[in-house]
Write a structure and sequence with these properties.
- It is a single chain.
- The chain has helices at about 50-65, 75-80, 85-95, 130-155, 160-165, 170-180, 190-200, and strands spanning about 15-20, 30-35, 70-75, 105-110, 120-125.
- It is α/β, with parallel strands linked by helices.
- The protein has a single domain (about 15-195), classed as Ribonuclease H-like superfamily/Ribonuclease H (Nucleotidyltransferase, domain 5, 2-Layer Sandwich).
- It starts with 12 loop residues before the first strand and ends with a helix.
Amino acid sequence: MKAWKPPRDTKMLAGVDEVGRGPLAGDVVTAAVILPRNHEILGLADSKVLSARQRENLYEDIIGQALCWCVARASVAEIDRFNILQATMMAMRRAVMGLKIRPDYVAVDGNRLPQWEFEGEAVVKGDGRVEVISAASILAKVVRDAEMQDLDVRYPGYGFAANKGYGTPQHLEALQRMGPTDIHRRSFAPVRLDLELEQSPLF
């Protein structure tokens, strides 16, 4: 795939990525990062191809060397109200607006940009092609994974520590057996169908 580079006059490049668009439970989490040009962070890559230990080590390197960074989110309620795409765009905007340094160009993983006032570009597979997007991917993944581990303690039986809210067989079985929690996305089909079954009269 063709290498990606920002415009030549870019001084403050922010990378943005999200984690958690597909799960049935939990917030969608986004991160925005600006790295110094001479950073010494080795091993930046798409967070999905890294081990948990690699991500955690890189997380410490990123927050230690980044010029600035911000993790943001859209809640389960916002996902259900606006749909997952719009909620993700809102969370990305919050992450960039939360940076202490205003970027002059923003590279976003994916194929579309949020509606905002920043110059930027959507980069397909950017989390594996652009270091600053990789950094954002890692921050968002580490934060969301830690949150899902905490939610596993609060809501035992759904396997959140392992499945991170995705619709694994264990998670779907728990949904049928115990019903949705208040962190489940009611607009997502498996959760919605389970609720409809619960509300259906029995004859």
